[in-house]
Write a sequence for this structure.
């Protein structure tokens, strides 16, 4: 249901309890399904209905009207969803609240993805390359921390936003990673909204609110560049089209131009960071729409910088693919073989990258096995079709 994240955010802000907000929304949604006709204003109806159910639960649990009086009834959502500055968006407001420094960094991002973006736990676990039970426990502990620590559901002063900005940007990055991996739109259909479009909106809003933060500008540019390729990412059969094979005439040049402007503004601050570097990598790929080719040496140099700023197996994996373009498949494979295979066993991109380089090196049998491993991890439908095509070509 498209209204879910928006309404849950509004309920959480008013009830000051994340679990209560999710439960109230679920009950309100169930009631809405039983109506003969849908409400004229679905989000407002769900908010009011969910809030009433939460108030009923408060009355029953505490046995006193005073507990409910602190949450006076409202007839619509105008004062909830159109709040004045400093952050004129309830979902983004709750995102900053969930990213309280008292909560562990990864837990903050996981909590934000669950409560604010509405991602299922299984999808969040894939983003963190973790098991679903482990991720469920992490999110549960984060909610408990919010409740037991008495974390205020209020924005900190603007001077304190920077200490939360990193976690906010990470949550948005991971949400967009999930949306981008879902080229066919299955995940967006499940949660009832275009997640990629919503992350783009939130990323641009953060950049607008914090124009002096170069990493906020970098993330907004990164999302714009990835979104610029949306029309070229799926073929007529519904299969994903990899970046190198996309028809760049279908790319959105306006988004590419806006991303370049954001990166230029970020560069003026002389404070570089990983999001700016990631956006620069994507902008280098976007140059193919103008120059007809990709400067792989430049891409490799940028990955060298990114690996120094943000060392991780996944960054090393992407660098290995760029290295293979410059020095050959065997050079890239040597880097992949040095990565922690056990840690990356659940990471589908690792198996896909190995399959690509193994095939280029003429090691078709090993490439086929790597594709089988990727397919066994249950990719989204569009990616599955693409991987099956590649697997069939190997025999």
């Amino acid at each position: 249901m498209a209204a879910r994240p928006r309404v849950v955010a509004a309920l959480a802000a008013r009830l000051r309890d994340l679990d209560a907000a999710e439960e109230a929304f679920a009950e309100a949604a169930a009631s809405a399904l039983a109506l003969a006709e849908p409400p004229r204003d679905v989000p407002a109806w769900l908010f009011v209905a969910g809030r009433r159910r939460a108030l009923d639960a408060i009355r029953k649990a505490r046995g006193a009207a005073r507990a409910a009086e602190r949450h006076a009834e409202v007839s619509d959502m105008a004062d909830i969803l159109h709040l004045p500055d400093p952050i004129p968006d309830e979902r983004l407001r709750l995102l900053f609240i969930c990213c309280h420094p008292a909560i562990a960094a990864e837990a903050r991002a996981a909590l934000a993805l669950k409560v604010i973006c509405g991602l299922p736990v299984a999808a969040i676990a894939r983003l963190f390359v973790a098991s679903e039970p482990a991720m469920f426990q992490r999110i549960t502990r984060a909610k408990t921390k919010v409740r037991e620590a008495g974390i205020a559901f209020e924005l900190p002063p603007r001077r304190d936003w920077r200490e939360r900005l990193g976690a906010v940007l990470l949550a948005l990055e991971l949400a967009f990673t999930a949306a981008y991996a879902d080229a066919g739109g299955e995940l967006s259909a499940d949660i009832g909204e275009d997640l990629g479009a919503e992350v783009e909106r939130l990323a641009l809003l953060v950049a607008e609110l914090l124009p002096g933060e170069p990493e906020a500008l970098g993330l907004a540019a990164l999302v714009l560049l990835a979104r610029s390729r949306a029309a070229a990412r799926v073929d007529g059969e519904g299969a994903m089209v990899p970046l190198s094979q996309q028809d760049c005439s279908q790319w959105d040049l306006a988004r590419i131009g806006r991303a370049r402007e954001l990166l230029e503004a970020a560069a003026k601050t002389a404070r570089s960071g990983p999001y700016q570097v990631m956006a620069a990598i994507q902008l280098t790929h976007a140059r193919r729409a103008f120059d007809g080719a990709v400067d792989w040496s430049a891409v490799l140099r940028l990955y060298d910088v990114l690996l120094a700023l943000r060392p991780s197996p996944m960054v090393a994996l992407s660098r290995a693919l760029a290295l293979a373009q410059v020095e050959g498949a065997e050079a890239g494979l040597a880097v992949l073989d040095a990565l922690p295979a056990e840690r990356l066993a659940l990471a589908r991109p690792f198996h896909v990258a190995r399959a690509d380089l193994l095939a280029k090196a003429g090691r078709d049998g090993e490439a086929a096995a790597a594709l089988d491993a990727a397919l066994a991890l249950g990719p989204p439908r569009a990616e599955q079709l693409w991987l099956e095509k590649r697997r069939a070509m190997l025999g």
